[in-house]
Specification:
six-stranded antiparallel β-sheet, mainly beta, 1 helix
Length: 199
């Protein structure tokens, strides 16, 4: 199925609504599926260029699973791009033909393509471009990068797991959090600031 317009909700037109299954324990101590749903904190991003659903987040690592403390945190807190000492699992649908500016989070970002084809580039150098297809994985270690849905009429989907990292030092200099125009999606960080700015 194809679409030619922007994302007006999550999922993007033409993509199925993904299920999330969360396991745990019942009162007897038996392993069970606690929740079957579609994720939390769904939002339109950048005026319809993309849409997101948060599949999981945690406030720390190791994660506190006792009494479902992690699930309460995830339900009640819409996460920033990543959580200091925690994790964020975010699914993003990209509208046809859309792309981002170069940006960088001070995080380990593991991105897996679920639907469509998405171009990854780390600069304007053509040799630093790759097209990722369903099942392909990008391990982004704090590098500047941009994403582009290569299709002009079909949406694309990626699943990102964002993990906190120690300050990243390259050539003796701390790298800065730089989300470019994506900063408006993460307004709790002032322009140029990041969760590890003073770490």
């Amino acid at each position: 199925m194809s679409t030619s317009g922007p994302c007006t909700k999550f999922p993007a037109p033409g993509l199925r609504d993904p299920f999330r299954y969360i396991t745990g324990y019942n009162d007897k101590g038996d392993s069970v599926i606690l929740q079957s749903d579609h994720g939390d904190h769904r939002d339109i991003m950048l005026g319809g260029a993309a849409a997101q659903s948060i599949m999981y987040s945690s406030s720390g690592n190791p994660v506190d699973l006792t009494n479902n403390a992690d699930l309460e945190f995830a339900k009640n807190n819409q996460p920033p791009v990543h959580i200091p000492n925690g994790c964020v699992v975010r699914m993003i649908d990209f509208a046809p033909g859309t792309g981002s500016e170069l940006h960088r989070s001070i995080a380990l970002a593991i991105g897996t393509v679920c639907e469509g084809e998405v171009e990854l580039s780390t600069s304007d150098d053509p040799s630093m471009k790759r097209v990722l297809r369903p099942g392909d994985v990008c391990i982004n270690r704090g590098a500047m990068h941009r994403w582009r849905n290569t299709s002009s009429n079909k949406p694309a989907r990626m699943l990102f797991t964002m993990l906190d990292v120690k300050p990243i030092i390259i050539n003796g200099k701390n790298l800065e959090f730089d989300m470019g125009h994506l900063m408006k999606e993460y307004a709790e960080y002032p322009e140029g600031e990041g969760p590890n700015k003073n770490a």
